[in-house]
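Usage

Read records sequentially. Each one opens with the input sequence:
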Amino acid sequence: MLKRLSRTQTIALGFFIIICVGTLLLMLPISARSGAWTGWHDALFTATSATCVTGLVVVDTYQHWSVFGQMVILCLIQIGGLGFITMGMFFSIFLRRKIGLKERNLIQESVNGLQLGGVVRLVKMIVPWTLLIEGCGALILTLRFVPEMGWKRALWNGIFHSVSAFCNGGFDLMGRYEEYSSLVRYQDDLVVNVVIMLLIVIGGIGFIVWDDIIRHKFHVKRYLLHTKIVLATTAVLIFGGALLFFLFERENVLDGLSTQGQALSSLFGSVTARTAGFNSTDTGAYTQATRMLMVVLMFIGGSPGSTAGGIKTTTMVVLILIVISNLRGKSELNIFGRCLEEDAVKKASTVFLMNLSLAIVSVTAICALQPFAMDDVLFEVSSAIGTVGMTTGITRDLSFVSRTLMIVLMYCGRIGSMSFALSLLERKHHAAIRFPKERITIG
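and closes with the structure output:
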């Protein structure tokens, strides 16, 4: 039966199994700080959020989970961030096992590779570089946390937050100071903010971009078109988002902060909304304009083949190019001296429409089930689909049905809405008949 599964079905099933195992482990008394069994639905929600590197929680990670439970969550974040296919294939390569064509196809699908050739080399690069980057982040954070936590706790916090940030997980252990406070305590801290932001951005630009930069260094002209689009779009979204965040919140959550605090909080708010889930300011106190900004950033997300979610930066660029080309009366999509293939247009349109449809249906359903303000629900749903983890504070008040819907959204957001649909509907067939073409009026 397993041999009959397509690549997308294999990946979808793999994530489902990991979530189930994580749920069972988190239900155990050893996983809870109180030593009691955790309800299966709370455990399932947490396991899904961790595996899908989202960060939405129904219980405070530090207050509720024991060290063992936190370790389970961290393992789920790492597996979910890199992808179980990537990690499994790395160990196979390490054990000198032969990687066949089917395995190479799985790797390509898992990391959104542009071509089948070179995927094994890409896997060999991904895991060591991930460990190196996470290790550097953990070391710096540990040294920063030592004065207030001591070496033992500082080391664990450094490792946990480094992995969570790099994998865009959004889970934190700052509940030791105040429940659900995330990184608000460090909103004016240069070291913590810069390290966390760098880890989020590096994890969110994608493995293909890493490989391109490592191979070509600073020779930008040699970069793949994919890399150029990702880097340019990422920069625009980060700095453009930070500027708008500052303008919208300078007399609200940023009021009273130092110049450094305002700059860091604005940048952090823009970066973390791109699927990381941490927050250094009170999310529930944001203005309506900022909430809409966050929804847009969360909906876009990171880049393909990364630890991030959302419709992805490349999808957004393709959609913008479609609009520009149509307004100019051109049939081709040109950018950076290259023309995009027609298949990119179809995929971008499909991903956008599916995610938008999921969001609309989910917001409508939750609003019908519970008396929440629509902007809070829209924020929550966008956070789940984009695997972000930011919330205005309604996650813990969601009903059983609403939480279940959020679990499905996080799952779809991680494996991709289009991949999820394909895993359910994919059938290989060829049309025997082609229907005649006829024009219709659009717009």
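Summary fields computed downstream for this record:
- The longest strand covers residues 334-335.
- The chain is about 65% helix and 0% strand.
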